[in-house]
Structures are given as C-alpha cells and as structure tokens.
Amino acid sequence: DCSNLALPEEIDYVYICENNTIYGTKFHSLPDTxxxxxxxxxxxxxxxxxxxxxxxxxMFGGVQKNIGPAGMTIVIIRxxxxxxxxxxxxxxxxxxxxxxxxxNLYNTPNCWDIYICGLVFQWLLExxxxxxxxKRNQEKAALLYEFLDQSKLFxxxxxxxxxxxxxxxxxxxxxxxxxxxxAEAKEEGLVSLKGHRSVGGMRASIYNAMPIAGVQxxxxxxxxxxxxxx
Length: 230
What we know:
This protein has helices spanning about 95-100, 110-125, 130-150, 175-185, 210-230, and strands at about 15, 20, 25, 35-40, 60, 75, 155, 165-170, 200-205. The protein is an alpha/beta fold and about 230 residues long. The protein has a four-stranded mixed β-sheet with strand order 1-4-5-6, with no helix packed on it.
C-alpha cells in the first residue's frame, strides 16, 4: 500500500519500477507522491493498458517487452521538466533538453527500430487500442491465475492484489519438481518458463504479443503434469 508514503521533504522526485518482472508484481495504483514528481520505469508494462499520462513527471522504458527490438528506449517527459540545468557529468544522451531542442535528431536516429515500433503501434490500433489490449491481457492472466489458485501442485507466489498481468511466477513443492516441469514443458514447445535465477521456480511472461492460445496450451499442460505427479 503506497497511499501514505513517508517522504522526506527534501526529495526531488519519487521513482518506481511499475511492473517487476522478477517477482511478478505490479503497482495497480500509483503512490501518493505528496506533490513530488513521479518518475516511472514502465519497460515491462508499456502499452499493456491505458494510463493517465498526467500523473507522471517522467515515464520511460525499454521497448523490448511490448513495443519493438531491444536497444531502444522511449522517454515521455512533462515539458516543464525539460531544463537547461543538468549534472556536470551527465552524458548528452541523458540531457533531455538537448534532445528536445534538436527535435530528437541530435544523433542519427535508430531508423529501423523506430519503423518496427511504428508497425507495433499500428497493430495495437487495429486491435482496438489499449482498452482492448488490456481486456486481452486480463483474460490471459486470469486463465493462469485461476488455475494456480485451485491447483494442488502449483502455487502462485504473489498476493492477488499485487499480481502482474505480464509476468506470472509460480512454483511446485520442490526444486526437483520445478526442474522436471520446465524440462517436460520444453518438449511440448513451452519454452523460457524458468524463473529468474534470483528467485527460482517458474515464470510465464505473457506480454501483448502472446496469444491466448499460448496461455491455454500452458494451462492444459500444467493440468496434465499435475495429474501425472500427484
């Protein structure tokens, strides 16, 4: 609950990572920043749902999860925060006024990545925009969470009120069973399910491009695996 954060008066801004891919947690309501600017890393939830952009001072994120190829970052900054004053050691790429004054063309732009992002934006619009994408993401996540909540073998690791729509971590009752599940899932074409090395277990990343059929296949396999390992 971030509704009553104890914030020192001398701070310049409040920073959050809005969606945590390792733990599978998400800020479903933004913290009360007591009038301070909110700076948010939204790399892993960019364009997964509608947002009120006016609540942010700066929003930024790598595009590699939901928008385009790795290596590109989108920054959205409130105009009054684009200032001349920067730290003396600040690299040019981080001097937002330099970038804005040059029309985002201070350096040769990464044209290919921008083109790919444009195709993804078009793909999103053709599917009804962010409101429809959010419904699809909620439907996908609900399939997986509902199974985990009733399973006798698998269990989710995140409280319901903090669950991510993009990253769903889960475990069995032993590391050996986790390893067996990951290996057998790979044989069925269900890959990249191993959890982050810092937490172990399993993790299903179900970003925008993952079709609901992919989540259905995973749940069906989990049901089958549970029946065989009771």
